[in-house]
Amino acid sequence: MKLSARNQFKGIVKSITTGAVNSEVHIELADGLVISSIITNGAVENLGLTVGQPAFAVIKATDVLIGIE
Predict the structure, then answer these.
(1) Cβ-based burial of 4 (10 A; exposed 0-12, middle 13-18, buried ≥19)
(2) d(CA 49, CA 22)
(3) Contact 41, 18 (CB under 8 A)
(4) Does residue 55 contact residue 5 with C-beta atoms inside 8 Å?
(5) Rounded to an integer, what is the distance from CA 14 to the centroid of its chain?
(6) Taking the alpha carbons of 24, 43, 11, 50 in that order, is the dihedral positive or negative?
(7) Given this model, what pLDDT does residue 41 score?
(8) What's the pLDDT tens digit per position in 8-54?
């Protein structure tokens, strides 16, 4: 897989919570961190995502927001 996005993190699908239109997918990285993504149910189906399988979290963003209390 070749992509222009530089932030590519390989991990394992830990959970998929399916809603009416979208699913929340959690990918656990090697160091125990978890990245969450909201994608369409169609994308979950097209990718054949299942809990326990390897997957990549690919982040392509122009902004990173930081906040404090």
Answers:
(1) exposed
(2) 13
(3) yes
(4) no
(5) 10
(6) positive
(7) 98
(8) 899 999 999 999 999 999 999 988 899 999 999 999 999 999 999 99
Rounded Cα distance between 48 and 68, Å, is 38
Compute the 3-state secondary structure of the chain and give helix, strand, coil in percent, each to the nearest 5. Answer: 10, 50, 40
Greatest Cα pair distance, the chain, in angstroms, is: 40
Query: What pLDDT does 15 receive?
Result: 98
What pLDDT does residue 47 have? 97
Pairwise CA distance, residues 24 & 27, whole Å: 10
Question: Which pTM value belongs to this model?
Answer: 0.84
